[in-house]
Specification:
Largest sheet of chain B: none
Structural class of chain A: mainly alpha
Largest interface: A-B, 97 and 68 residues
Oligomer: heterodimer
Number of strands of chain A: 0
Number of domains of chain B: 1
Distance between the termini of chain A: 39 Å
Distance between the termini of chain B: 35 Å
Chain lengths: 253, 104
């Protein structure tokens, strides 16, 4: 190890790729139920099998897909659906910004590919790996590829299984209710401190008050209300600082 | 609504958010308040979907014992809070809804 650019492995590309896959595995296993739930729910929401599967390949962002399927079934207008997607996925700008400098040396095709694979889960493991300066940066994009690809494969396969399962249930089994239940399971354990509780309550109440607005506009108004209430409360009560929302949709992507 | 156009639009938006900063050579500075606001997005948007699903299952406000989704949802909330498990929350919530629908 006299050369600082030397990689500890004789096959650095393969070794990085495999290490990306391996480090992502626990998260991948945790994501399987979510992919299946999405598949079931997309069918319950009225999407056909091709549309439900295509959303997992084209959008490839769990939370936005859950919300998108729900909005499609309730007849939201396209601009509102897209605006909601933008708000829900805005956090990816943070990930992309954080990793950008580390990918600067790569050819365009690599950057376009890795951006497609940039999920919450791939980001978490990749960012940790890039932060480890003992390993030279030259082959780290292979780690990113491994972590991103295994997450992608898991999401596509578990979606397909969910679509298959969803099609077995008769429509009167109220499977669309799994959406509300999934969201309850994500939101309630993440509520810590008054700002996040107030954000949830205010968003929920405003959603009820604005429910009859056309195009599902109420969803946007309610979401923005919750965000503002959370931020304002957090900034005015110093004791509850940094106890707000969890920052991501855990395991939902 | 054309579902295909909806899906492709969602895909383009999501990809642009993931790709844009990577392609930009300049480093983007994201302020503290923006980061703070982003942390509340999941809580706010999910709550904004959950409340109408529970309180307005038929499109109008229904706070009564006849609202099966509200009762099943409240039970599921308790389960989510105690177990922090998505699978348990869904299992208990769905079974509760089926029982309430069968009884009612």
């Amino acid at each position: 190890m006299t050369d600082p650019e030397a990689h500890p492995s004789a096959h650095p590309r393969l070794s990085e790729l495999w290490s990306g896959v391996r480090s992502e595995l626990p998260i991948v296993l945790g994501g399987i139920p979510f992919g299946m739930i999405y598949g079931v729910l997309a069918v319950a929401a009225g999407l056909n099998a091709w549309q439900a599967q295509a959303m997992s390949s084209i959008v490839f962002a769990g939370a936005a897909q859950f919300i998108g399927a729900q909005m499609m079934s309730t007849g939201a207008a396209l601009p509102v659906l897209w605006l909601t997607t933008l708000v829900v996925n805005l956090r990816h700008v943070l990930y992309s910004t954080a990793l950008g400098p580390d990918l600067r040396h790569l050819p365009q095709r690599w950057r376009w590919l890795l951006a497609y694979l940039l999920t919450d889960e791939a980001y978490v493991m990749t960012a940790v790996h890039y932060a480890d300066r003992r390993i030279p940066i030259a082959y780290k994009h292979w780690f990113f590829l491994g972590a991103g690809f295994i997450m992608w494969a898991e999401w596509q396969i578990s979606t397909a299984v969910g679509i298959f399962l969803g099609a077995q249930f008769p429509a009167n089994w109220s499977l669309d209710f799994t959406l509300a239940l999934t969201f309850i399971a994500i939101v309630f354990p993440a509520l810590q401190g008054r700002p996040s509780l107030a954000a949830a309550l205010s968003a929920g109440i405003v959603a009820l008050l604005t429910f009859t607005l056309p195009y599902k506009l109420g969803l946007i108004i309610a979401t923005l209300t919750g965000i503002v209430v959370g931020v304002v409360l957090e900034n005015t009560s110093p004791t509850s600082r940094n106890l707000g929302g969890s920052g991501k949709f855990p395991g939902s992507e | 609504m054309n579902i295909w156009i909806a899906i492709i639009g969602m895909g383009i938006i999501t990809y642009a958010l993931r790709l844009g900063p990577i392609l930009l050579m300049e480093r983007i500075e994201i302020g503290g308040t923006a980061r703070q606001a982003l942390r509340f997005v999941p809580t706010a948007v999910l709550s904004a979907i959950i409340f109408p699903e529970l309180f307005m299952p038929g499109g109008t406000l229904d706070i009564s014992l006849g609202n099966e989704r509200l009762l099943a949802g409240l039970l599921a909330t308790l389960v989510a809070w105690r177990t922090k498990s998505v699978l348990w929350t869904i299992a208990v919530g769905m079974v509760a809804l089926w029982i309430l629908q069968a009884v009612g």
